[in-house]
Write a structure and sequence with these properties.
With about 150 residues, the protein is mainly alpha-helical. It has six helices and three strands, in the order E-H-H-E-E-H-H-H-H.
Length: about 150
């Protein structure tokens, strides 16, 4: 691939990041990334956006929601592009969250194992329905399982 220009079109950003342009527009609508507009109203992204997109994708692979990613990036000074120290801090936090979700999933697996061959699906006694929202508090609600993309 050729040298990185100072600014990228949305198509170039899509190719270099491997993220669909529709997703990039969505990230931008959420304020996760930013661009300037040319006189012809076309987006131009500073090259640092590539790193921002990489961090967003990494966080998504780890199962974070876009609102969680938004919150984490907004907490950086001046909403800067995460530098190496920022990444270390973010990845340590996300590692702890991932560990907590793994533990919740392991407990859920134990509960499910108890259900195999049962089939009562009792709202009163089945462990799956009587978890005191433990899994939900860890973000394990079916929509937050680890996502492997690409
Ligand atoms: S299905 Fe019977 S205990 Fe869960």
């Amino acid at each position: 691939m050729s040298a990185l220009p100072d600014e990228l079109t949305i198509g170039e950003l899509g190719i270099r990041s491997g993220v669909a342009t529709s997703a990039l527009r969505f990230y931008e609508a959420l304020g996760l990334i930013g661009s300037r507009r040319t006189s012809g109203n076309q987006r131009r992204y500073p090259r640092a956006v590539l790193r921002q997109v990489a961090v967003i994708r990494a966080a998504q692979v780890l199962g974070l929601s876009l609102s969680e990613i938004q919150e984490a990036l907004a907490a950086l000074p001046n909403s800067r592009t995460p530098n190496k120290q920022d990444w270390t801090r973010l990845s340590q936090t996300w590692r702890a969250q991932l560990d907590a979700r793994i533990q919740a999933l392991e407990r859920l697996r134990v509960d499910l194992t108890g259900c195999i061959g049962c089939g009562c699906l009792s709202l009163d006694s089945c462990a799956l329905f009587n978890r005191n929202d433990e899994a939900a508090s860890q973000g394990v609600d079916g929509s937050r399982l680890i996502v492997h993309s690409k």
